[in-house]
Amino acid sequence: MMDATQMPRLLHGTPGTPHTLDQHEAVYHSTFRTSSLLDELSRSGLTGRGGAAFPTAKKALLIREQRGHRKYVVVNAMEGEPASHKDRTLLSTNPHLVLDGAEILASIVGAQRVAITVARDNPLVVNHVKRALHERERRSKRGPELELHTPPWRYVAGEESALVHWLDDNESLPQYRPRRPHVLRIGRDPVLLDNAETCANVGLIGRYGAQWFRGLGDEATPGTQLVSLTGAVAQPTVVEVVLGTPLRQILAAAGADPSPQALLLGGYGGAWLSGEYLDTPYDNASLKPLGAAVGAGVIVVLPRQGCGVVETHRVVRWMANESARQCGPCAFGLPALAEDLAHLAHATRDASPALGRLIDRAGVIEGRGACHHPDGVVRFVRSALNVFRDDLAHHVAGNACTGATSPTHYATVPTIERAEELIWE
Amino acid sequence: MGVVRRRSGGFVLKVNPILCDGYGHCHELAPELVTMDEWGYPIIKAEVTPLSDLATLESARYAVRGCPRQALRVERVSDDAGPIRR
Ligand SMILES: Cc1cc2nc3c(=O)[nH]c(=O)nc-3n(C[C@H](O)[C@H](O)[C@H](O)COP(=O)(O)O)c2cc1C
Ligand code: SF4
Ligand code: SF4
What we know:
A: alpha/beta, de novo design (two linked rop proteins), B: alpha+beta, 5 strands, about 20% helix, binds iron/sulfur cluster
């Protein structure tokens, strides 16, 4: 039995050498609660770790209530965020904890099949999961059938409707969902979809219960979070932190620049936070008033010598290229935002009108895509307008800082592929 | 009691942005509900229009019928709560 205040909870072991099933059962004991699992989940207060922080039990209840004798659980380990590596780290450390959680969720909603989805661009992680599945197969088999699926890696491929669409029809394209809550379906079968880290937490709650889970974190935001730190850090790392830990402490744990200019929080659809707020507890209740969120656990550290305008441009240009190009406001609007940001980043003569256009266009695009991809970009851009407003004023005046022309960058941005070369299936 | 039905509640026009191809007719057919963005895609009034506004409801229906991609839909909204499920 693991103590309720013991850390780490999820990242127990060494990344890259995953626990075997035997090792796993030696660390986390092997008996599960069999009754009132949904109740425990509900009382645990667990929220989704994939970005939206939606209550996990609420979503499970919605799928449990659906009719249909065939249901699916989908484990989302697509990890579309370029600055995130927490899901692959988790699966390379404790794959069985994620699988335990998926099985528990399956028993809660009455699903017979579980799909674990890992981007095929991560062959090492795919192998770890394969091996874990083989190990489980060799044990006497009860419970749902577990299958591995490997869609191509794209930013929006991890969006829930895109992922379910890929499982259904081999295309990572988001779907239009006019009414909420929306029940995702493969064919006609209802789907419960949760992030890999969320599932790992369910694996703990299914063993030790809600009260145990609440042994770390506070009332409103219990539990831990896997945080991916990149940028001005000693080296990119994933640390498991108790929700509510001050940002300053998290940076120290990762050997990050102790007095950064700003932090990019959540992911590339998240928000910048000024470096003056390092004493803020890392949880959604505390970050929300500052316009930020824990999101997918991404923290990019921007040091003082970096340029926030340039970083924002780099990220938005890449995000624009990752649009699935199904919706006009996203397909045309995001490149337009990127173009405005290019003028600002390079402090061109057009920078001043570009700033006005950027603000107007952000307002026009918001809420008009089939998925939240454009909304995330708009949120990110607006946070930059706020956090880097002095720098923007300098860029508009034609005086870009030295950071703007430096070849060193901090936010990880993959090379931009030509639109016709992007793989969606 | 309750034999006479009043047209209470309202409606909003909704577009499926995946189906919508832009440069369309909806702005012409329902200018009071639809403006166009700089790329030719419709920006639809988000506020609820009362069902008693028959002229606007009529334009909304024209737009729905006139959309070549069948991307538009009139969604009823009840007085008190969210959209009525049908
Ligand atoms: C554009 C976009 C990309 C997303 N990519 C991912 C992803 O790569 N991995 C993930 O777990 N969730 C991703 N999400 C969130 C999922 O849609 C979904 O909310 C989440 O996986 C649900 O799991 P949770 O409730 O356990 O967080 C993305 C959302 C959006 C709008
Ligand atoms: S909003 Fe963008 S990413 Fe989402 S479905 Fe539409 S085009 Fe694709
Ligand atoms: S008429 Fe239909 S396809 Fe054309 S712009 Fe309007 S909604 Fe889009």
